[in-house]
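WARN retry 2 of 3 for item q-0093 after timeout on previous attempt; input resubmitted unchanged.
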Amino acid sequence: MTTPDPDPRRTPGFQPVGRVSPGETPPAEGGIYGISHQEPPGGWGPVPLALIMAVVALVAIGLIGMVVALIA
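OK item q-0093 returned
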């Protein structure tokens, strides 16, 4: 079992002043950056936009029909 606070006298690469020997720590940053795959294209396609416009048109026609029926 390891303790979360090990004895500094038995820690490898640890100098008495509180410094760490060169080469004992990992590099500060990795060498890999950026995205790893191509992003999918965004935005709406023509088919979903046409369906939405058709539904909006049907709702508008229905509301206009209801107003005409109430007035007549």
